[in-house]
Specification:
The structure holds 2 protein chains of 2 kinds.
Chain A (H helix, E strand, L loop, with lengths): L8 H43 L1
Chain B lengths: L9 H32 L14 H28 L2 H33 L7 H22 L3 H29 L19 H44 L1
Helix pairs in contact in B: 1-6, 2-3, 2-5, 2-6, 3-4, 3-6, 4-5
The chains are: A mainly alpha, B mainly alpha.
Amino acid sequence: MMPELGKYAVEVLSSYGVSLALLGGLGALSVVRAGRVRRQLAALEQRIRGNG
Amino acid sequence: MASLWEYANPRKFITTSNRVLPWVGALALTSLSIGLVWGFFFTPEDYRQGASVKIIYLHVPAALMAINAWLMMLVGSLIWLVRRHHVSALAARAAAPVGAVMTVIALVTGALWGQPIWGTWWVWDPRLTSFLILFLFYLGYMALWSAVEDGDTAADLTSVLCLVGSVFALLSRYAVLFWNQGLHQGASLSLDKEENVADVFYLPLLVCIAGFVLLFVALVLLRTQTEIRARRMRALLARERMG
């Protein structure tokens, strides 16, 4: 299944490895931060409402 | 049809983007998967560049998005400067890390591709150099947002920086034409049949480009929502402190 990359195997595989890691990392960080900020804001709004 | 300016309302922006975000995200992952698998596994070697041509499916879409992300930030910055809509400034802020990552991918894959084909990782070619400067502008833009405490002042300053950096965003696109020198080739995608890449590479490349565009849109929508919520949180905390 793996294509024959010949003498370019290192360059091609490194390109895919680095790019997918960077895109995956960026996506994961964005999702995690989105969830954290959403929860923090919800907690803050609830606290403010509670304080009247 | 609703006016575009309705989306300058943070609440409206979040409601609408919540509706489209799952679809855009799913489409992005689908098209990226199809494009990359197609390009990596099911395309032939190039007669001159061998299997190294498979790097095109990452390098070209990432380079396109690196430039276009900055142009999107330019539009957001101009809207902020002219109409003072916070969502536009926050969208520009949200796009910067995405554009920076695209620039890094373009630079790294370009170096990895250049080494076996040109015999060097790097050369001070007009396009490569302007791309590196664009990356430095991305870093400066993000640093400036973080360094200035007042949100509106930060938006003003970063908008001006974005205007200046747009010169390098355009240069990195057209440097080959302006200077007509250097190692980097002209456009890989062209309406000119002679210049355009062969169809067997072109079609999976188009799918990858669509995937990168959709991924950019999904990430910017998500990150803009986060910036809007973070801004509201800062405002609520400030109000609470005052009274």
